[in-house]
Model the fold of this input.
Amino acid sequence: MFDALNEQQSLAVSHRGSPLLVVAGAGTGKTKTLAARVASLLDEGVDPNRVLLLTFTRRAAAEMVSRVGATSTERLATQVWGGTFHSIANRLLRNFGQAAGLSPSFTVLDSADTVDLMGLVRTEEGFGERGKRFPRKETVANIYSRMVATQAKLDDVLETDFPWCADHGDDLRVIFGAYTNQKRAHEVLDYEDLLLFWRALTTSRVGDKMRQLFDHILVDEYQDTNTVQADIIRGMCSPTTQVCAVGDDAQAIYGFRAATVDNMWNFGDHFPGATQITLEQNYRSTMPILAVANGVLAQSDVHIAKELWSSRQGGTRPVLCTHYDEGAQSTFVAESVLDARERGVDLQAQAVLFRAGHHSAGLELELTRRDIPFVKFGGLKYLESGHVKDLLALLRMLENPSDQLAWHRVLATLDGVGPATVRRVCDELGVASEDHDAVTRLVDGAGRFPTAAEAQVAELRRSMGVCLGHAGPVGASLAPAQQIDVLRGFCELVFPNRYDNAAARIADIDELAATAGSYSSRSQFLAELTLDPPGKTSDRAGPPHLDDDWLTLSTIHSAKGLEWNAVHVLHAADGNLPSDMALGDKAGMAEELRLMYVALTRAKDELTVNFPLRFHVHRHANDDRHVYAQISRFIEPVRHLFDEQAVDLDAPLEPHVDLDLVGAAVTDEVDAMLTALWD
DNA sequence: AGTAAAAGGTTTTTT
DNA sequence: ACCTTTTACT
Done:
């Protein structure tokens, strides 16, 4: 399987001894090379338990392991320590965390939990001067995580990245303090903590023990690691540890998460005596597509020199398609997707890529209308939608009756219960107490609730009681899927007040129960769910289910490392890609350019770049306010490398003004008639 | 006091 | 569409 390695790839696979940096351009067989290297280590008899493979997503780790398994025996491959920095940190901290004063049973806050906790401490601290609008809790969490990831002072972060929140510096200080107290009090770590504690442990008294665990450390997507992560790699190295980092500085797109390409540029300084190998032959795209990608990249000032080339000389030229507006773009993309399918390109082999999650909104409507199945990656997570969090909170209460976040979420869904009642009931039930019996006390009738919530509380008590397995011994209770079925009754009672599309959300709960079917323990189900969230939002009429062929919609960030035969890029307009947020920021603009580069290099055979002339001013626009856009500044200089098409450039509703006048006249007439009724 | 409903705003990307 | 603030109501 790996016999077809080219010269540079073989070098990267067989190199031993000095630290190794593999600069792997897009589509140059990076994954294959990394997998082959691991396989060759195992063939040499290296103990798989002593190989650490750090990847950017869990999906990437799983794919790598399965590729290795195809060559070496699968049993060996699955023993490799593979995963994200965060999941490996989680694993190591369970074993070594006590050296840092961590309980081995700490729990991990995912980003949604972090946001909730920020919201909670904010209301508890009670802000809100009149007239001054406080940043949303998501923003508060963003500020926090950026500050921690970059290890920068709050004031500097506010000034450079969140200038519109600069007024609230002092409030934020208080909130962050309270947030940290809460975390420590409940033995809970957020994403940043996982990395910080891991790094701290490498310099602690158990540092040597940790370093003795691994002979080989391999890091994928090295261009998207941040300073803390680079410190961790260095901290995990003993003099005999062999490091291999793979990455492409031209594809660095996580600067907003404090990733820094300096880690690649300074690899030789961090790891003295390092060897560098560059992979330049692209096996993915046709030459006409690469020409565009190279042309875009050439506009960037610095990167490690490389010029991608492909032996795939033929192929159609990329298409640059100008549309009147977003609606026309959606229609065109839907039609060309179907057209490609007619020509034999399965929907699975096609993808639509865009800068921001909401850029696909119009297209999603169009696809739904035409019954074209699709799955969307990136953007809003399934797990982050309110109703799924509601159900997970119920499970978490059962799992850990002292989980205050879960209690708050569940109790606040009851009629007539607000923050004040939640706090009072939590006190009455002793949620914060050490005995972990608060749920039992609730089921047994403790806690005073307003009469409006009577029926709901009865149902809550009943279903929680069933899930606790009061009939039998504790722990011999129902399987997770059955517990969800039981709790569904409570959701049915509570969702109609909370959400306007309650039926669809109940259906999601059923789907979650189906997912839970393969788990036998509730704690395992919850843990897997936070570490490996299903990345699709399923609440629209999208994929009926897995069996069919489906089209991929994805943010460019989520498309990293993937490839398709045919790729559509949406909204290649200044303001969208590059995002207007980055205008005026040099580093930001460079990152936007790399984002475009990543999008273009996902395509194997067919590439279409779409450019709608006008787009809405506001994100969730109800109105028709729009602006006329310029074509993306990254595409303009390489325009000549495209075949150009213009579709329906004429305004579909040219006599807009006349229609408005008629509308006004009719409205006047109706109003006059109505007024006559009471005058 | 504390909750519900109505009004008014809203900066992307994600482990 | 969702979140925060304001106001109205019990």
Notes: The mean pLDDT of chain A is 84. Residues 656-678 of chain A form the longest helix (23 residues).
